[in-house]
Amino acid sequence: MNDSASFPVPLKGSLQLYQQHPLPLPYFDTDPDLPNTLVFIPGLTNTIGCLPYLPRIAESIRKHGYSLVQPQMSCNLGGYGQSTLEGDAQEIAKCISHLRSLPSKLDGRIVLMGHSTGCQDVITYLLSHDRATNKQTRLDGAILQAPASDREYYEMERNKASPQQRAKMDRELQHAIKLVEEGQGATLMPRSDPETIHMPTKTWDADQGFQSGDTEQGNASAVFSPAMTAYRTWALKAKQGHDDLFSSDLTDDEITNHQPGAHTIARAITNLGAGSDPSKPTRMLALIGEKE
């Protein structure tokens, strides 16, 4: 049993849909009557209410007329393995468009905040000039909280692996890259270690106890070892993959190129500024946390 004292302070608010098609997706809003909104996007494997600092954020921004909104997205929990950053951005745009249509928020500001890999979602959202400048989907600000490089994490794990494991990891990544280059990015990657994935299939009986090897982990393996497409494998692990936005070895041009079509932070900032409302202060992107 979990000790309830270890859980974060509960968040109170309203739960409602921001889209009904192609599938219903809800969002949680701590103060739906407030005019301004901080839309929070968590990292890989997270979902609504997972981050322990959210209650403090909600309390702090309330005094400035901001509510905290957490949209449920298709990529949350284990869904990221078959998702894309652009798909995330499209769902976020649906949420922001919905918020801007509400009477209580018609004249309010909307700031998008990403945590960890959620920061890639923020940048990807802003890479679209149309999203950044459209009246319904524009942002008044963006925050990157603890941005991380999944590619560098993968490389760190690779460097710690045995020569045999390293060779296996290299083969898997090269296979994913080849599939992406052939236009087969939606192909599911083979399971490299299916024997380590826990799948509870037998009903637990107190008289009999758990079968050998069973635990009370539920379906956690579906989140921590999800099915992965070749595209998402490439995006997360390969240099210049679509998720590779915060690696420490990026060149200056890979960061500062702001020309149309560039997949860079600078392009995102340019688009953020292009969506400015003359009646409101200039938009800005804030970075919280830095690499050691």
Notes on the structure:
The chain has 292 residues and is α/β, with parallel strands linked by helices. The protein folds into two domains: 4-149 and 250-288, Rossmann fold (3-Layer(aba) Sandwich), CATH 3.40.50.1820; 151-237, no CATH class. It has helices spanning 54-62, 85-100, 118-127, 129-133, 150-160, 163-181, 221-224, 230-237, 252-256, 265-274, and strands at residues 14-19, 25-29, 36-41, 66-71, 110-115, 141-145, 285-288. The protein has a seven-stranded mixed β-sheet. β1 (14-19) and β2 form a beta hairpin. α3 crosses α10. The two termini are 37 Å apart. This is DUF1749-domain-containing protein. It holds the Pfam family DUF1749.
CATH architecture of the largest domain: 3-Layer(aba) Sandwich
The structure class reads alpha/beta
The total of beta strands comes to 7
Largest sheet: 7 strands, mixed
Q: How many domain units?
A: 2
Shape: globular
Average per-residue pLDDT, rounded, comes to 90
Organism: Melanopsichium pennsylvanicum 4
Protein name: DUF1749-domain-containing protein
InterPro entries: AB_hydrolase_fold, SidJ
Pfam family, one: DUF1749
